[in-house]
């Protein structure tokens, strides 16, 4: 093989980055592969907008089939995003014996099993480093050098938009809505930010990490997903007083009882390295039975870092092609039949520590009523803060619990929220003290 | 191939960890490779000491040739360390067509080129993830998913013993000698700690990182190497006052003028994530032209994390064997002829900021004399601190410089140290403000 030809579906921001990287670092890549890697075709519905890079005549097409059926193209890069037509294109590429590189976490989180099975039948690789953490090489590390470990936990700060907003809320003491508006003006948040700020994007990425770490398929809808839009700057301030920062954390755990997979605002100790991950940066922390704790940190999004991940996957596949093999390993690193489907533990059964904030009228006996209900549900109090009293006015009462079972915590809050003295719905934020 | 058989040279701490991992996680590894991986032979001069794990009869031998010549063994794991007989064994394994996995940074830093050339001739892999950063998968990331980047910098905290000592000196304000003694009692430092505390181990690891990052061979003796044994707790305290922490940093840089590779105590801003890497943990931070800054963090040594890295390399090779290929990529990730030898810039030509501490008799005019010499050598002062005056006694004068050329800084210090008013040799610590 004296040249590896690849085709690109989707010429948006990331696609442009990939085209730029393959051109800029062509010599470097050729040195690492042993042959040039050439971008032969780019398919996109819009082939007129100037992307700021020059593309040879005949490379651009509006017809995806020109990529999917070209016998010279051995690797198809899917950067369209979303479910349709991305899924049909990926399956057709596989059907035509082409290896696939994709950054599409939504597609793989929901339809991964079907796509991986198709790839197994045809003996092609499906690589997706760019789907999690931008350029940070976590997926290849899990499939590759960390593969000898049984992992017990994965924690991730996986969405740059959320982390940017939380960082500014923390540093400036401002409210969610204000930071979001400013982030939109600066281009750090989409016009419709729902997918990011409600945690859906983070949950897609968690689904992939959980599959790789624990060798298990998960039903995406079973991942408990809470975003940051209802977070109050008051809670961020109280968190700091107790020695915590609030991050939108993707959490995966596995023990003998099963698998946890959840996304929600989480209080983590300020002393943990994850607490220092600020702005648009991403970080992922694993604990394996031999490697112990290990953390990866870098730019989790953006044209260039994501292109780095896509190009790394292309090099991986190109090295296979150069040595004459179809594929070396299944997408999740496990043999195709070794991946089991395990249920995710229901949130009610989770045990953890909780931050609870009650808004109550400041009257004698309020605290006795609240703590009475908590006691009834076997929830013991680690510490409590009641702000300065202004008789008859609303005051926040903050309680940090010891380990408690989530279903009892929720029942207690529901019961407390029926009291006349409670002026607003009580708030609950989960605490992860030990990120191992 | 229905079974991959490996042989182990060296049954010390790491070797025992590898044997334990291959036994404990045998099913997991088989699922990831598609066949069982079996440890067929272990060679060590001492086969009587109980390592706390059971080894089947006939596996242990004192004769390395039983590993090196066994036709069933396809992967030889070298964990003897040092140059001899490790080098002869590795070359013989390659000559016999066996793939090699090693944790031996000293061997590769000095004899890598010869070993890689032999591997190229025989078409076998030489993998060495465990040589840098214990279990942290940086080597495979550089060879693999990050391979599409031109790297401009690499910064590493690569020696757990040094970082443990520096962390305690920083937190407790105690002196080097006291912490070292205690670290030796606790088993965190060797009886003869020279290799670690004088920076030699860090320099070996830097040599490997520089080769991988920049695609260049370096002459190990050209790496400027300074350890931490002459660091004073006074300097650590002053560093904190200026917003810095002192770390033993491995520094690699590449620009159009050439390559820098150096190991020395370095002041880094407390706000940089590397400053938070405490105790026996390691971290490595890279900047690539597309990926941007990326950092890896984890346990940089110890039986289990290092075994994780060795086992990851074994899985990598086993997947090649299962797909019927000899090797996929050269040890440094570049084609064998694409690695060039570049000279390392001499330290005198380095430009940077400096912390200078002078011990002077407290007399009028002292500062004028010192700053006069600095001015003569084109070294401009960013800030200065002179401690409380006690007339006639010795006082420390600390100066932080703007960017200056090292050879001029050294000349200035040599000249200043000839003055009568100077009571001790002046101290110089390099500052890295921008770790990109």
UniProtKB/TrEMBL annotation, chains A, B:
Give binding positions for NADPH: 105
Specify which residues bind NADP(+) according to the UniProt entry for this protein: 9-16
| Keywords (A to Z) from UniProt | Amino-acid biosynthesis, Methionine biosynthesis, NADP, Oxidoreductase, Threonine biosynthesis
* Enzymatic reactions: L-homoserine + NADP(+) = L-aspartate 4-semialdehyde + NADPH + H(+)
* BP terms from Gene Ontology: methionine biosynthetic process; threonine biosynthetic process
Q: Which PROSITE patterns does this chain map to? A: ACT (PS51671), HOMOSER_DHGENASE (PS01042)
Q: Which residues form the ACT domain?
A: 355-430
> Which SUPFAM superfamilies is this protein grouped with?
ACT-like (SSF55021), Glyceraldehyde-3-phosphate dehydrogenase-like, C-terminal domain (SSF55347), NAD(P)-binding Rossmann-fold domains (SSF51735)
Report whether NADP shows up as a keyword of the record.
Answer: yes
One short Pfam family name for this protein? Answer: ACT
Residues that coordinate or bind L-homoserine: 190
Q: Does the keyword Transferase apply?
A: no
Q: What GO molecular function annotation could you give as one example from this UniProt entry?
A: NADP binding
Could you name the domain of life of the organism this protein comes from? Bacteria
UniProt-listed Enzyme Commission number(s): 1.1.1.3
Catalytic residue positions: 205
Which pathway does the protein contribute to?
Amino-acid biosynthesis; L-threonine biosynthesis; L-threonine from L-aspartate: step 3/5; Amino-acid biosynthesis; L-methionine biosynthesis via de novo pathway; L-homoserine from L-aspartate: step 3/3
Q: Which family does it belong to?
A: Belongs to the homoserine dehydrogenase family.
Entry protein name: Homoserine dehydrogenase
Q: Which organism is it from?
A: Geobacter pickeringii
